[in-house]
Amino acid sequence: MFAGMIMPRQLIAAAAPVNNNIGLQLYSLRNEIKEDLAGSLEKIAKIGYKQLEAAGYSDGKFYGLEPQEFNTLVENLGMKVVSSHLTFKGDEVTQVLNAHKEAGIKNLVWPSLNKDQRASLDSYREVADHFNTIGEFCTKNNLRFGYHNHDFEFYPVEGQKPYDLLLKMTDPSLVFMQLDLYWIIYAGEDPVKYFEKYPGRFRQWHVKDMKAGEERAMTEVGTGIIDFKSLFEYATKAGMKELFIEQDEISGDGFDSVKMSFDNLSNILL
């Protein structure tokens, strides 16, 4: 898959993250974290992860901790939370922005859309306008705002792919795309075509692999069929600055899984 997509390695060196900046989306270990947050973070740090993406913001707190308390816990382990998945209502904006600033988290990412938000092209247009508004609030507070895709954005609605509409209608200076490589490939799309058509829009990547076979289930990075080495040749064109390993469902030990993905991706990026 994606064979032949090779560019001179020196062209991507500035944008491709070094191995010690491989991030982890904490949703991958949500069950373990629910049982023992501090212990889970310690195990994650020992694997070698330096950057994290949270998936546990609620009512001004992160995983039940005050923002500064959460930040201290993570940084004392030699890691940093650089991004956060969350949704929120309009009247929560001030609290959300303040909490993320206090926690030192620079990137806020909207993780998905509900059925109403993706019901029609008009609903996607409303989403785009809403994202521009949130992005403006974030920019004024020295934060960044992005959107994380699944597969549904690539299936035509009224003859148009919603993901393209979102890219065209959101202001690049206000909204970045967090491209989930698994889901775009699951939908039958070629990520490189999007990198070439919309260069610089994909500040963050979610890296997860795909098993061969009809079900195309998620699997640890480096154990599936996605050619990450070729995709990473396009890091500069895509505008990628940060990446996060994520696996929505893990069948075995969670920490063994995210370690395998970390080790394999480290070797891919050598």
Describe the 3D structure:
- The structure is a single chain.
- With 270 residues, this protein is α/β, with parallel strands linked by helices.
- The chain has a single domain (9-268), classed as TIM Barrel, CATH 3.20.20.150.
- It is 37% helix and 16% strand.
- The protein has helices at residues 30-35, 37-47, 67-75, 93-102, 121-140, 162-169, 181-186, 191-197, 228-232, 235-238, 254-268; strands at 23-25, 51-54, 57-58, 61-62, 80-85, 107-110, 144-148, 175-180, 204-207, 209-210, 218-219, 242-245.
- The chain has an 8-stranded parallel β-barrel.
- Helix 2 runs parallel beside helix 11 (254-268) and helix 5 runs parallel beside helix 6 (162-169).
- The two termini are 20 Å apart.
- The model is unreliable at 1-19 (pLDDT under 50).
The largest sheet, given as strand count, sense and whether it forms a barrel, is:
8 strands, parallel, barrel
Mean pLDDT: 93
> Which residues form runs of ≥5 with pLDDT under 50?
1-19
What name does the CATH topology carry?
TIM Barrel
The helix content is 25-40%
Distance between the termini: 20 Å
Shape: globular
CATH class: Alpha Beta
Question: Total domains, how many?
Answer: 1
Structural class: alpha/beta
Question: From the coordinates shown, what is the CATH architecture?
Answer: Alpha-Beta Barrel
CATH superfamily: Divalent-metal-dependent TIM barrel enzymes
Total strand segments: 12
Q: SSE order in H/E notation?
A: EHHEEEHEHEHEHEHHEEEHHEH
- With helices defined by DSSP (H or I, 4 residues minimum), what is the helix count? 11
Strand order of the largest sheet: 1-2-5-6-7-8-9-12
